[in-house]
Automatic annotation (TrEMBL):
InterPro entries: Biofilm_reg_signaling (IPR052155), CHASE4 (IPR007892), EAL_dom (IPR001633), EAL_sf (IPR035919), GGDEF_dom (IPR000160), Nucleotide_cyclase (IPR029787), Rev_trsase/Diguanyl_cyclase (IPR043128). Residues 468-716 form the EAL domain. This is EAL domain-containing protein. Residues 330-459 form the GGDEF domain. The chain crosses the membrane at residues 12-35. It comes from Rhizobium laguerreae. It holds the Pfam family CHASE4. Keywords: Membrane, Transmembrane, Transmembrane helix. CDD domains: EAL (cd01948), GGDEF (cd01949).
Length: 722
């Protein structure tokens, strides 16, 4: 065979056959490796799911119990030993409604009051007692110590739960106290009756899990399987003792895909052989792949890697091109979108969850505006270009705000954020820098309006922004010179004898050109530019000097969340009190709703330090936010101040609410102050409801220092009873 024939044989048959064989082997090896790893991941996920199911079942059993154990009727009927009632509500009902296999009610000495065992279970009382007695003993000790660890808005009472054998069957055993839901029934710590629930993990429970979550041949076994055909998760008690395990035939998607793919691999090898035998076709394919790679690289260079949206450079170039080519009658709109509370999500759930949230936000915006140019220009900042906007801008902004307010579900958690949107509209060719500047200004106004809303740029916004910048500059100057911030004092009167009982110190800014500027204007500015601590220091110093001049009066000051969360705040307060030789018990610090929503760690430590020194804590504007009641339950405070919005309707629809607030405060040993009292009728109604102190224009407006001293002298220098 001559050289030419050998080359032809190599090029047409040997080389293509060798190449296709090698590539086929590589493909088979890769598929086998991928299939094996896919099966491993699938089995691991099934094991994680089974473990999570058992964990959630323990929580579910305890939650089921609370539906009947946190109940005044349960406390009364258990104490009365009404066995018929116990059977209907704590025995049969728990079995028929929740599927519990056994229920026992124990007295405070842990002796059984009532027992229920499902007819299908051949168990003795001694079998169940061995399982629940350690948990009941531990729970009773926690109750006697008034332990509330783990109690939240969703978990109403403490409890003990574990996996254990009841007789010869594995089960979830949960013990909960029988307590009052209203708090009207007084129970001595440790004297509560207990409720025991038992839910077996074998038989019906494991078969239900298998059907619901598609675990093939799922069973309970005392010992772990040794063959490779079964997966399992061990079940262990809190002590670490083995209870047994759940076994099942694992889901193997990789093996199924491998089997289905083998014919395709053979066809692929044949196709590679035929392609390799044609040199020109191979060159064309190589060139096509190179061209595709270049396009992909160009795409990646212009996209945000997390969301797939345009990055800053690509959005800017696209914006400039489209605005420059716009027709005279064509309108464009630029939107600036900033997520609200995104930092809190990152801090609470971690950056991985934050990244997932950003990608979900991008997906929603693509759904809302599929034809728009959307870019991500920063961590939680997005830009949008809407073409032919006209009258659609407000509707688009409203839809963005509404859709981004809807909950996001990430890893089982429901995360709620929001968005502020700024919009700027231009007709015809426009300067992209100016349009983005206007959208940024509009976004600033949307945030200033309370966030979770939108604003469309108007000519007045430039002037408002300039005024805001001037106020920032003037406030810095005022705090540097300490010449314009004044402190006024509003008296607080005893509801019982109508005498002067304390005062509240209030910051006022007397601007040299604009006169007095309201606190709700300059306090947020001070917080945003980092000067709130300087304002607080001026108020604290002046309040201490007034207390030094009025030795029997108590004083309240307001503090922002930024102050209360700073590490040095307690030291600053206590050092000022020491400087003026003032008893810390005479000072009361009022916290706002904003603090109840954040700063838990630092603020709680600071509260503890201040209260240990004798300083009192009050919750201001009580009842205006959903967090107030939970804050009172979890934070030790001394007083609640009922918001003026309730006082205005004290003789109408607000009366039951105010009465409930006062009763709750009394139950926890707290004082109450009504804010914004303006009429004798309001005052009389509040006195009748049992409010401790009254404050408002009916008694006095905020007064300057000299007027306060005159008022104090005129009141006979009476001793504070606040």
């Amino acid at each position: 065979m001559n050289r030419q024939a050998r080359r032809q044989l190599v090029l047409k048959w040997i080389l293509p056959a060798t190449t296709s064989l090698i590539i086929g082997c590589v493909l088979l090896g890769t598929l086998h490796w991928a299939a094996a790893n896919t099966d491993i991941v699938a089995q691991a996920r099934q094991r994680d799911l089974a473990t999570l199911i058992v964990s959630k079942m323990q929580v579910s059993v305890a939650h089921d119990q609370e539906s009947a154990t946190v109940w005044d009727d349960a406390v009364r009927n258990t104490s009365a030993r009404d066995l018929g009632w116990l059977k209907s509500n704590l025995g049969d009902w728990m079995h028929t409604y929740f599927g519990h296999d056994a229920a026992i009610v124990l007295s405070a000495d842990l002796s059984p009051i009532y027992e229920f065992i499902a007819p299908s279970n051949s168990l003795s009382s001694d079998d169940i007692r061995v399982a629940y007695m350690p948990l009941a003993d531990a729970l009773q000790k926690r109750l006697a110590a008034s332990d509330t660890e783990g109690v939240t808005d969703r978990v109403l009472s403490i409890g003990e739960s574990d996996l254990a054998y009841v007789g010869r069957r594995p089960a979830i055993v949960s013990v909960k106290p029988i307590v009052s839901d209203t708090g009207d029934i007084e129970q001595q710590p440790g004297d509560q009756n207990l409720h025991v629930a038992v839910r077996f993990l074998d038989e019906s429970f494991v078969s239900e899990i298998g059907k619901e979550y598609q675990f093939a041949d799922m069973q309970f076994a005392e010992d772990a399987p040794t063959d490779a055909e079964h997966s399992f998760v061990p079940l262990t008690a809190r002590s670490g003792a083995a209870i047994g395990c759940f076994t099942w035939r694992p889901f193997r998607p990789g093996a199924s895909v491998m089997k289905a793919t083998l014919p395709a691999v053979g066809l692929a090898a044949l196709a590679i052989f035929l392609a390799a035998s044609v040199c020109g076709h191979a060159i064309w394919r190589r060139s096509a792949r190179l061209a595709s790679s270049r396009e992909e690289l160009q795409h990646l260079a212009s996209r945000d890697p997390l969301t797939g949206l345009s990055n800053r450079a690509h959005f800017s170039s696209g914006l400039a091109a489209r605005l420059g080519a716009a027709a005279q009658n064509q309108s464009h709109c630029v939107l600036f979108i900033d997520l609200d509370r995104f930092k809190a999500v990152n801090d609470t759930f971690g950056h991985a969850t934050g990244d997932k949230l950003i990608s979900l936000v991008a997906r929603r915006m693509n759904e809302i505006m599929p034809a728009a140019l959307i870019g991500r220009i920063g961590g939680d900042e997005f830009t949008v270009l809407l073409e032919d906007a006209d009258d659609k801008v407000a509707a688009a902004c409203a839809q963005i705000v509404q859709r981004l307010r809807e909950p996001f579900e990430i890893n089982g958690a429901h995360i709620v954020i929001g968005a502020s949107v700024g919009a700027a509209i231009a007709a015809g060719p426009a300067d992209p820098s100016e349009l983005t500047r206007q959208a940024d200004i509009a976004l600033y106004h949307a945030k200033a309006a309370g966030r979770n809303t939108f604003a469309i740029f108007g000519g007045h916004m430039d002037e408002l922004l300039r005024r805001r910048r001037k106020l920032e500059h003037d406030l810095r100057l005022a705090l540097e010179t300490r010449s314009q911030i004044e402190v006024f004092y509003q008296p607080v009167y005893s509801a019982e004898h109508k005498g002067l009982s304390s005062m509240e110190a209030l910051a006022r800014w007397k601007h040299p050109e604009e006169g007095f500027i309201a606190p709700d204007v300059f306090i947020p500015i001070a917080e945003e530019i980092g000067l709130i601590q300087e304002v607080g220091a001026i108020v604290l110093e002046d309040a201490c000097s007034v207390m030094a001049d009025l030795p029997s009066i108590a004083m309240a000051i307001n503090a922002s969340a930024l102050e209360l969360c700073s590490d040095g705040y307690p030291l600053r307060v206590l050092s000022r009190l020491a400087k003026w030789n003032i008893d810390p018990k005479r000072l009361e610090i009022e916290i706002t709703e904003s603090l109840a929503l954040g700063g838990e760690g630092h603020s709680d430590r600071n509260f503890a330090m201040l209260r240990n020194a004798g300083v009192r804590i009050a919750i201001d504007d009580f009842g205006t936010g959903y967090s107030s009641f939970s804050r009172v339950q979890n934070l030790v405070v001394d007083r609640i101040k009922i918001d003026k919005s309730f006082i205005d309707a004290v003789q109408g629809e607000s009366k039951p609410l105010i009465e409930a607030m006062i009763k709750m405060a009394r139950a926890k040993g707290l004082k109450t102050t009504a804010e914004g009292v303006e009429t004798d009728e309001q005052s009389d109604a509040l006195v009748a409801l049992g409010c401790d102190s009254l404050q408002g224009f009916l008694f006095s407006r905020p007064l300057a220092r000299a007027a306060v001293i005159d008022l104090y002298d005129g009141a006979g220098k009476q001793t504070s009873t606040a």
